[in-house]
Amino acid sequence: MIFGLFRRRSRDAEHKVYCEIVAQARQPVFYTDFLVPDTIDGRFDLIVAHAVLYFRRMRSEGKEVAEFTQNVFDLFFQDMDASLREMGVSDTRVPKKVKVMGEAFYGRADVYIPAIDNDDVDELAAAIGRNIYPDSPEPVAQTRLAHYMLAAAKLLTKQSAEDLMTGKLVWPTPDDFKAIAV
């Protein structure tokens, strides 16, 4: 019995949730019709956008859910750490880069969440423009992505925390938003 205390707890459910977030962020339509730059930064920003949507939905669900989402968050940054190392970033620079990524995550969450909470497509599109399209604004693509994110937030709200903790995330189909005109 005492050895059970030292056994590593499986993180399969958390890993499945994280993989679902990443898989949705990697949908090719985001990089073609939404014009998200297919770069390290562009891919990071889309993962962050989807992670923010997930974490926003799971907030205020209680201690067990908070622990679960913290584990998903930790997996996210473990993956970022591993990715940096695979790209050849030196061991001494990885922690600094991960810290910058953490600050970027929280900065984006701080601007996306109020816009989502207020159902403000213009505010969200502006924030998306500053973060995802900083070098060349894409007003139509930003607005499409903002509409998609607002729909995703609403769809996630309709799903139970239990389903969302097992990786049964249902996202809107991005193709449904690529025809939105400003």
Question: What best-fitting shape do the alpha-carbon axes yield?
Answer: globular
Total number of strands:
0
How many separate domains? 1
Count of individual helical segments: 8
Percent range for β-strand residues = under 5%
What would you report as the Rg, rounded to the nearest angstrom?
A: 17 Å
Report the biggest beta sheet as strand number plus sense, adding barrel if it closes. none
Distance between the termini: 62 Å
What class would the helix/strand composition place it in? mainly alpha
Mean pLDDT: 90
Give the fraction of residues assigned to helices: 55-70%
State the main characteristics.
mainly alpha, 182 residues, disordered N terminus, 67% helix
Short description:
By secondary structure, this protein is an all-alpha fold. The protein contains eight helices and no strands.
